[in-house]
DNA sequence: TGTCTAAATTTTGTATACAATACTGAATTG
DNA sequence: CAATTCAGTATTGTATACAAAATTTAGACA
């Protein structure tokens, strides 16, 4: 099944084990996962839809290397959509959601304490996706999922301070607004949280390092 | 190339020549377009990604049949995103855009006058997409494109009055706001235009006709 | 008749084979 | 020595072949 390959590549991209620009040869990927190119092609096509991979005709697939401009756009989109989603979630929030999100925040803390940056980043993204699920709006959920995935790659590329993840505070504040059923508050907290994330990026560097070159140094 | 098949199927879906629920057999589609199943599968996967087709494991692909709920969600999303896009477009608007949109509106009028409902619907969707291009925000443009496509299918299924298309007035008002560089005005016109479209749907019917049954009557 | 079962058929899922295109590098030439 | 051409190699694009699953059909039985 292709989903195993999609997940594997996604994870590797988010954790920067596959650097932006890296060539994803169909044969190579197929041998690693023990499947034929047919499946790999399907997986790569799927990853291309979610913009984590770029496919060039007759040249193959590469790990995406989002531009500074694209990074801005993704966070502008999040700043428009997610506050609305948070407001919707606040209106539907109940006890079950509390326990689920609480666990999530705890897991984030733990990952951060252990210094597992990759896992912390993944969990932080899942938190936003979980909120969309609570809002129970499939169209917005799809958008948020897409934006969160792209953000994971963008953060992996452009995050200013490799040490800090600095998220948990906002997530706690969101929880509070949800518990109080405060839609307006949740909306505002979410907006400023997204703006924070956006401003935590270093989007002034001339160009993202073209990793395919770095890769070329290897042999 | 798969794009020919994607376009062909899309057009057929929008124009209701392929009814929601219709089975899209890989072999059948492949023979029609003179390509192998490989290409057809790729095309169907692409259409599934844009939600115009539903793929069920081991059962195949079917023309999507968006639910009433999905219809509401799509237009709610449009009502959030497109006004913002319109405001951005208003700020970047110039002469070249005027001529392009004017032509577009004329074409819509013509199609409507000729009673070509399918073409009028397609042009109306393209108008919204054109605005997104003017706004020059790739992320929002992708979202608008996706939403417009889904809207085309939804309108084909749920539109109240088969005769009226009733759009051109709003499109003209949008043009006016753009020309004046009036971002706030454009935003508001767009919002009410989307709400109009939304309320032009008949979303009270118990269930969309399951066309696969109607199809079964054929032989 | 109507329903259940099982073989036969069709259709999708996956792997492989062949074709077309792009990449690599050595030989050649200015 | 730089640039260029032209094989040879490697990789992607597409078609086909085989495997697995679902659907259909036929027949048995009540």
Structure description:
The radius of gyration of chain A is 18 Å and the shape is globular. Chain A has 219 residues and is mainly α. In chain A, strands 1-3-2 form a three-stranded antiparallel sheet. The first copy, chain A, is 70% helix and 5% strand. The first copy, chain A, has ten helices and three strands; from the N terminus they run αβααββααααααα. The model of chain A is unreliable at 211-219 (pLDDT under 50). Chain A has helices spanning 2-14, 26-33, 37-49, 68-92, 95-113, 117-135, 138-158, 168-179, 183-199, 211-216; strands spanning 23-24, 53-56, 60-63. Chain A binds a DNA duplex (30 and 30 nucleotides) through residues 1, 25-27, 35-39, 41, 57-60.
Kindly list the characteristics that best describe this protein.
DNA-binding; 219 residues; 5% strand; homodimer; disordered C terminus; three-stranded antiparallel sheet; 3 strands; 70% helix; mainly alpha
Over the alpha carbons, how many angstroms does the gyration radius of chain A reach? 18 Å
Shape of chain A: globular
Main sheet record of chain A = 3 strands, antiparallel
Average pLDDT number of chain A: 90
Order of helices and strands of chain A: HEHHEEHHHHHHH
**What count of helical segments of chain A does DSSP give?**
10
Query: Would you tell me the structural class of the helices and strands of chain A?
Result: mainly alpha
* Order of strands across the main sheet of chain A: 1-3-2
Q: What is the distance, rounded to the nearest whole angstrom, between the alpha carbons of the first and last residues of chain A?
A: 33 Å
**Poorly predicted segments of chain A:** 211-219
Greatest interface and its residue counts? A-B, 19 and 19 residues
Beta strand % of chain A: under 5%
As an assembly, this protein is homodimer
Proportion in helices of chain A = 55-70%
Would you report the number of β strands of chain A?
Answer: 3
